[in-house]
Amino acid sequence: MNFPERFSNLPPYAFPRLRALLDHHEPGGDVVHMTIGEPKHAFPAWVTDVINENAAGFQSYPDNDGTPELRRAITGWIRRRYGVEMDPDTNVMALNGTREGLYNAAMALCPEQKNGRRPIVLCPNPFYQVYMVASISVGAEPHFVPATAATGHLPDYAGLPEDVLNRTAVAYICSPANPQGAVAPRDYWEGLIRLAERYDFRIFADECYSEIYRDAPPVGVLTVAQELGADPERITLFNSLSKRSNLAGLRSGLIAGGPDSIRRVKQLRAYSGAPLPSPLQAAAARVWADETHVEENRAFYQEKYRIADQVFAGVQGYMPPEAGFFLWLPVDDGEQAALKLWRETGVRVLPGAYLAQGKPGQNPGEGYIRVAMVAPKTELQRGLNTLRDCIYG
């Protein structure tokens, strides 16, 4: 039996790689999980009530594009957050988590050729792995652009050769960045939009960590695009309730963009999508409309920033994250550091190289570990202190 070749060279996903690295060793102490970005703070208690009140909806097929109530809640949030008015019928669609949208947007919007050649999809490096597999799925060439300390942990797309930019059809960008916590400032967004206009490519803006930050809310691409008068079809935004509201399992995401782009994504979704059950859509509509729990959640993370800053105050190369809930800690070798931590202390972290591409010596993540600050505060404090003493002591 024959199998397709298109995915045959995919590296193992990050977490199976981590299990292969660590699981045949005994932990050196009480286990502290700091690998996966799964929020542990409480979600709003009333979410369960809303689901129960709408439980009869489990009997019916759900609205594929999102119920009118959910789409209005999404556009209401976009208006409050970004100052941008969007039509709930034509500019947005509900997603079953943003990973679905980040993948399907490439399927629906990336052309088969760019200037008569195989298209390129730009990806920051390190990156969320769906960017790469979406590129491969549409027959494009993923082009990994280092996002390192030298570039402010954001990819320097403007510095790419003209030959690459002339073939670029899509540029993925994550702000606040996973894993580094860097925030794209207004001038970065402006420069990227101008670059996209010059070379005629689309921007897929993954802003899933936008509501977890230290002080000021990160500027969003929709805000800057509106100020510049950019073509709405050039910008596609993705966000979700997973981090904002501690509801990773609810799978409520959003995609927002120009009406033609959204129409094409909707068309694909009608054939291949898996919409949220109606009771979950009802809950999501209530959650998108509420900011009180988001402010409370943000305060918890701001306290965790302060703890991390205190713990790593004397560590050379420590970069306080601007946003999100990951630490991107410099080490000599990420795999060796993760293995040492596990075997000697029971603290479990992710080698940075597992989130990036590149041969040994050229992988921009190999000198880092990613640490998720999602555990309760006491457990987090213990884990960070243990990590510091083991790796930097």
Automatic annotation (TrEMBL):
It comes from the Bacteria. SUPFAM superfamilies: PLP-dependent transferases. This is Aminotransferase class I/II-fold pyridoxal phosphate-dependent enzyme. Keywords: Aminotransferase, Transferase. CDD domains: AAT_like. InterPro entries: Aminotransferase_I/II_large (IPR004839), LL-DAP_aminotransferase (IPR050881), PyrdxlP-dep_Trfase (IPR015424), PyrdxlP-dep_Trfase_major (IPR015421), PyrdxlP-dep_Trfase_small (IPR015422). Residues 30-383 form the Aminotransferase class I/classII large domain. One of its GO terms (molecular function) is transaminase activity. Pfam families: Aminotran_1_2. Its cofactor is pyridoxal 5'-phosphate.
